[in-house]
Each structure stands twice: as structure tokens, then as C-alpha cells.
Amino acid sequence: MRKTALAALFAATAFATPALAQEAAPFTGLRVEGVAGYDNLSDGSSDDDAASSEGLLYGTQIGYEFQAGRAILGVEGEITGATTDVRAPDVFAAGDSFQVDAGRDLYVGGRVGIAVSPLAMVYAKAGYTNAQVDAEYRLNNTRTGFKAELDGYRLGAGIEYQINPQFYVKGEYRYSNYSEVEDYEADLDRHQLLAGVGVRF
């Protein structure tokens, strides 16, 4: 009888320990999420006629966090696309046009957060971003196209909320600056406001 009671107590403890650990550190583990939101790309100029375009961003992110007390540290990677594009007529000659479409965007960086409640955290992030744009110039029946790589950095901040031990939602703002377009100097700003839904394993 005593052995049976001890075995039952051991089993209950074994099953309860992971649950208690997860409850004590709900923001620990591998996570995968989908993101979508607002995207704005501009040339970084303060002039009134600075080129700017808006669109929708969409993509997926994977990350891993470790929580110690209220502090959360993690790394993350992301790939997104966007509908953002710029179309300008009569650029160099009457009847011509220049079009730039945002392509895929790769990001890798770190995240630092603090748990403001057992279910919510606020965080800041920083890292490297590499974006691609597709450009095309048209004059009469002639079309000239090329792709360019944009290298830069990203800063951001947001809030994440655990719906349950596995699923969470978040809201985030981030700013990216691209100071180099392949071998040419540039100053492009990107502002994004997004929402995410994810699962933590």
C-alpha cells in the first residue's frame, strides 16, 4: 500500500514539474509565428517631395527565448514580403516611367524583454536586415529591369500576450535604415507596424 502511494506521488510530481516550470517561465522556448501589417518605404529625405510608398507586409518568424525571473532574452529570424511599390511617370523624359517593387526581406537579430505580468511582456529588438527591390524603367517599348540588395539595421519594440501556454499574439513597431544599396551609398527608411500570431513549443 505504501509503495503504491509513493508511486502515485512520484508520478504526480513528474507530471506537475513541467507544468510548474512552464507557468514560472511562460516566455521560454522555441516559437514560430505569422506576421502581417503596414509597410512604408521612403528615401529618408526631409524634402517635401521625398519619394515614399506604402503597402502590406506579410511573412513568418522563428525565434527562441529564455526567461530568468522577469527578464527574457532571445534570438529571432524572419522572412517577409510586401506589396509596397513606387511608380513615377516622366522621370527622365516625357512618357517614360520608373517602378520599384519591394521584394523579400530577411532579418536576424536579438530581443530583450521584461514580463509585466504572468501573461504579458514588453520587449525591444535590434538586428541586421537585408531587403531586395525589383526596379523597372520604361521608355516607349523599351524596358530595363534590375534587382538591388539593401543592407541595413532594424530597431523595434512591442508587446506580447500569452493566450494560453502555447499560443500568443503580439503588436510591434519597427524602423529599418538601409545605408548601402549594393556598392552605392543610400539613405532609405522603412517604418512597419504589424501584428503577429504564434505558437511556443
UniProtKB/TrEMBL annotation:
<feature type="domain" description="Outer membrane protein beta-barrel">
    <location>
        <begin position="8"/>
        <end position="201"/>
    </location>
</feature>
<feature type="signal peptide">
    <location>
        <begin position="1"/>
        <end position="21"/>
    </location>
</feature>
<dbReference type="GO" id="GO:0016020">
    <property type="term" value="C:membrane"/>
</dbReference>
<comment type="similarity">
    <text>Belongs to the Omp25/RopB family.</text>
</comment>
<keyword id="KW-0472">Membrane</keyword>
<dbReference type="InterPro" id="IPR027385">
    <property type="entry name" value="Beta-barrel_OMP"/>
</dbReference>
<dbReference type="InterPro" id="IPR051692">
    <property type="entry name" value="OMP-like"/>
</dbReference>
<protein>
    <submittedName>
        <fullName>Outer membrane immunogenic protein</fullName>
    </submittedName>
</protein>
<dbReference type="InterPro" id="IPR011250">
    <property type="entry name" value="OMP/PagP_B-barrel"/>
</dbReference>
<dbReference type="Pfam" id="PF13505">
    <property type="entry name" value="OMP_b-brl"/>
</dbReference>
<keyword id="KW-0732">Signal</keyword>
